[in-house]
Amino acid sequence: VMLPKQHNQLHVFAKTKQSETGAAHAPKSSNFADAGTSILPDRAWAAITSGQELYNANKAEQERIRKNLEVARANYEAVVAEICRVAEALGQQVRQMGNNRRLMAEEARSFARTLLYEKHLEDQMASAEVLVGAEGAAKRRASAIEALESVVNGLRDGPLEGPRRGRVMERLRLAEKQVLQFTDCLPRASVRAAERVVELENAANAPEFAGIFPWRSASKDGCPERGNDGQGFFGGSALLDKMER
């Protein structure tokens, strides 16, 4: 808070000579005489103190917002990484089904149930979708969940052979495709970072579990609602602008 005249006069007032009775006298040129020498300095210091308190409050609020942004970003990145892990798991499961001659329906059903109820795939996708306002993501999420639920609920016990095996593999491929198209609706930079995390996690796998990394061969136009800028749909959110940076 700048008080050009009064601020300078505080020092003048402090240096006034004391009378023989000990009373202080302001210089004749001082403006304090009009307002009262004992009131104006108090007001000046109150204004200075108030301004400092306001500055400190704003600074504290900015720090709180910054920390909240960091937490939101970390949570969002963790969710996207988990979704990419699901896509990788689906790719590996389809490969194993193609190589396993004695695959049982119970195994495929257990795998789909794990993604739905232990990995909480729908909740993870919904969280990412809501946080970034991902336009077009909801129908991809619904299709992926529906494909997995059909494996859990519509598969009778027994060996998976012939056309029956083919139908299950088709449902899992559909789930994988929808998950990848879902990630196309998210900010590209955060998705690419999550993909790198999963690639590093699977880099040392045994040959039979070598990484599929389905996003490497997937088309990147699975969410045309997002637009062609490759940066994701932010819905005008300043929070997500900060997150994407």
Using only C-alpha atoms, the radius of gyration works out to 33 Å
Structural shape: elongated
In N-to-C order, the SSE pattern is: HHHHHHHHH
Number of helices: 9
In whole angstroms, how far apart are the ends? Answer: 35 Å
Mean pLDDT: 78
The portion of residues assigned to helices is 55-70%
Proportion of beta-strand residues: under 5%
Broad structural category: mainly alpha
Q: What composes the largest sheet?
A: none
Count of strand segments: 0
Which regions have little confidence, pLDDT < 50, spanning 5+ residues? 1-38, 227-245
Give the gist of this structure.
With 245 residues, this protein is mostly helical.
Annotate the secondary structure layout.
Blueprint: H1 4-14, H2 32-35, H3 40-99, H4 105-118, H5 121-132, H6 137-153, H7 162-184, H8 188-201, H9 238-244
Helix pairs in contact: 3-5, 3-7, 3-8, 4-6, 5-6, 6-7
